[in-house]
Amino acid sequence: MVKEANRPIAGSTPAMIENETGLVVPSARSQGGFRLYTENDVARLMVIRRMKPLGFTLEEMRDLLDVTDRLDARTGLSLDEREALLERVRVYEQAAREEVAKLRVQLSRAEDFAVTLRGRLSDAEGS
């Protein structure tokens, strides 16, 4: 199934991600020139969308997409190769968890700051 992906992805359109990263190229174009993406293309865009805000580099994105493509193919991999690929995914998963933890701390501090400002406004408006 080929579909058009128009919605912005983490502040970037699919076309911007395609141009910036070269990691996802549309599978086809409509007669009107719109980029058309398969479900696999959209899944790749989602991986990029999720990795970008966590600070992963283009090379890391490329590596993870390669690893997952190879795992999804399920052919021609020895048990050792498969385990090595799975270990690389585990490394990315751990890095993602660490970044999420950092973001939770930042979010908590931002929420505390917003509450402080709300309190100051309430105090000033009540005077």
From TrEMBL:
Pfam family, one: MerR_1
PROSITE patterns, sorted: HTH_MERR_2 (PS50937)
Protein name (Swiss-Prot/TrEMBL): MerR family transcriptional regulator
Keyword annotations of the record: DNA-binding
Position of the signal peptide: none
Gene3D superfamilies in alphabetical order: 1.10.1660.10
Keyword hit for Transmembrane: no
Start and end residues of each HTH merR-type domain: 20-67
SMART domains: HTH_MERR
